[in-house]
Amino acid sequence: MGEGFAIRELPRCTMGIANITGPTRNLTKGAHNKLVQVMDEAGYAPDCSYGYSLEYYAYEQYEKDNEMYTFSYWLPCKRK
To answer: Which end of the chain is more exposed for a tag (fewer CB within 10 A), N or C?
Structure first.
């Protein structure tokens, strides 16, 4: 395996996904709390037993001069 490269197998789980869109590349601030609030309203809660969350940045959306950017934040969750 190359230096700086790692593989981690992620167990199957239910994921809460927040797609945050705005006119700036700085969309990550508050993403966790926003997703937790929406999950709570939908009857779900974070499941921290998995030990991770995921962030997704679309290369095309962050490397060009776009008027709107989208950031995705993924968090394992479970029904309350």
So the answer is: N
Angstrom distances, CA of residue 36 to CA of 40, 44, 53, 63:
6, 8, 12, 29
Q: What is the DSSP string of 22-73?
A: ESSS---TTHHHHHHHHHHHTTEEE-GGG---EEEE-HHHHHS--S-EEEEE
Does residue 43 lie within any of the structural domains? Answer: yes
14, two tokens: 């239910």
Yes or no: say if 25 and 62 are a contact pair by the CB < 8 Å rule: yes
Q: pLDDT (tens digit, 9 = 90+) per residue, 17-39?
A: 998 887 777 788 888 999 999 99
